[in-house]
Amino acid sequence: MNFELFIAKRIIGNKTYKSSVSAPIIKIGITAIAIGIIVMLIAIATGFGLQQKIRDKVSAFNGHIVIENYDTNASDESQNPISTKPDFQKNVIAIDGVNHVQGVASKFTVIRTTEEFEGVVIKGVGKDYRWTYFEEFLVEGRLPNYSEGLNNEVLVSTYLTNRMNLKVGDSFESLFVNGADFDQLPRQRKFEIVGVYNSGFQELDEKYVIADIRHIQRLNKWKKNQVGNYEVFIDDFRQLEQKTVEVHDTVDRNLKAVSVKEKFYTIFEWIKIFDNNTYIIIAIMILVAGINMITALLVLILERTQMIGILKALGTDNWSIRKVFLYNASYLIGLGLLWGNLIGLGLLLAQKYFKLFPLNPETYYVTEAPVYLAWDYIIALNVGTFVIALLMLLIPSVIISMISPVKAIRFD
């Protein structure tokens, strides 16, 4: 054990140290560190959690990357079909980082019952459709089965069932207009509700009804291999831009690849604001905690002036004495981090598993504050806070070099 660490341990273990004048200020410093780490953990976990939840919900309806035609169609309806070769999906999924490709098509319709009617988008999906996200959203009934013959099963949202007074097992009629030809009578299809979903994303819930893609292919007089667009899912969302370029380079020249960030630019720009807010909170909390620790260190130094004078008289240099107090401060910072992590992670785990704090889905697109926990940012936050707080203490520790041994050890 080195000399400075030995002295620091003796100071920490001294009983009079805990009942000294500096004790309340030290407790305030530890509390500031603990509160700071609690607030930072909550800000990062909920900020990342909200971003991830919103991102997953948007991706559930559109995929991470959409392969579509080069045209001026900015609507949600598939107008011109994509005709591809049999190995098209295999070529796309062969791209490193792409894990799934599915063909879909959409068509506007008016659904009606004896009492109500509503305009929606029928999204046609096939047997290659990945239901992972909708398994999480499902609140009643079951998911449709499109792996066999054509059927009339559909999945609708809670928003639409409440608005149309429908429930699982009910049927409704859909009226389809053939493109811009309004002279023709609308064609009808009857669908049966087998499941109800609720993503919490009202902007999408109020719009989409999930049905068999073969209905849309028949209505549009498309062939079996023709779809409206392809949805591509990737492993790592952080590589979205790179994978979008790779997919675009793989598909035919008459097709383009568009990332979900481009399609929902406003939403993703909005959730970017969370990052700025999180950075501001982290900066403020570290600054406040650092200032409190500086105050605690200065009080410790002033309280131990005689000890500093004696050490200097015995030949100890200024840096060694500064290290004694920095070791002491490191212990206090570590204590604050320990309590902060215990309380902060405890609150986050309680929210994750017991949903204690609800949110307004109309504003935040989620029904409760989501929590994202990962060891990488927890460790980085703790190490960063410890290092920055310790570096901030280097400046006030310079006061030790200004203490004169003669004046410090003088007994009046």
Automatic annotation (TrEMBL):
Q: Which keywords does this Swiss-Prot/TrEMBL entry list?
A: Cell membrane, Membrane, Transmembrane, Transmembrane helix
Under the heading InterPro entries, the entry gives: ABC3_permease_C, Lipoprotein-release_system, MacB_PCD
Keyword Transmembrane assigned to the entry: answer is: yes
Q: Which residues form the MacB-like periplasmic core domain?
A: 30-220
For the ABC3 transporter permease C-terminal domain, which residue ranges apply?
Answer: 280-404
Kindly list the places in or outside the cell where this protein is found, as annotated in its UniProt entry.
Cell membrane
Q: Which family does it belong to?
A: Belongs to the ABC-4 integral membrane protein family. LolC/E subfamily.
Under the heading PANTHER family, the entry gives: LIPOPROTEIN-RELEASING SYSTEM TRANSMEMBRANE PROTEIN LOLE
Q: What is this protein called?
A: ABC transporter permease
Source organism per entry reads: Winogradskyella maritima
